[in-house]
Amino acid sequence: MTDIFQLPLSTHVNRVIPKNAFDQFTDTKERKEFVDKIEKIRWLYKIASDTTNLPSGELVELQVVEISLRKKDEIPGLIKVIDRSIPYPIVFILNFGEELMFSLSKKHLHPTDEDKAVIDWTFKSPWIKQHEKPYRLTLKESLDYVFADFCRQLAGKSPDQPRVSIPFLIEREKKILELQASIRKLEATIAKTKQFNKKVELNMELQRRLREVAEMSNI
User: Fold this and answer.
1) How far apart are CA 59 and CA 107, in angstroms?
2) Three-state DSSP string of 178-206
3) Which of 25, 48, 4 is nearest to 146 (CA)?
4) I need a labelling partner for 180 at 20 to 30 A (CA). Which of 1, 13, 162, 212 fits?
5) pLDDT tens digits, 73-89
């Protein structure tokens, strides 16, 4: 694929990762899914102090991994397998035909197993066409900034908006998901309700929740 992020050559790795490299972290079903759903896994970039001259902080390295798919699938379970097996944050690029999808997780080391990571939250994009370039890895300030900035992009924050912390974004995303789930349930209830006054009352509550989602999305 093309160099979508257009990063310096010093960050390029371009190495194929065998699918069986994750066998020790999978069960029989997951190993079959790696074969059936994934065409190729390629480690594209290593973003670290020695490849970018950016200072480290909480973050030591950020990896970029491309997964070429046999069919269009978000493969959340398989991404978690890879994410948990590698201690560094990973920008995943899912690639199918002319479409791409990006994801990046906030995670921390397992308290009793240093070879595993615990995923706190995953930010992800919708599927986009390869020629579109709404996301970028901005190599400035620090490695922590590169990570946080990409999380903010995936969460729908534009660069000209005030910066917000990753914990704030995670809490916002969780609240939005909860509201969206409650909206779906409320819509189903409204569809079944026959009493006019009750339907009006439920519709008013629906509009309130929709406004709340819109407001939170703009924070």
Assistant:
1) 11
2) HHHHHHHHHHHHHHHCCCHHHHHHHHHHH
3) 48
4) 162
5) 999 999 999 999 988 99
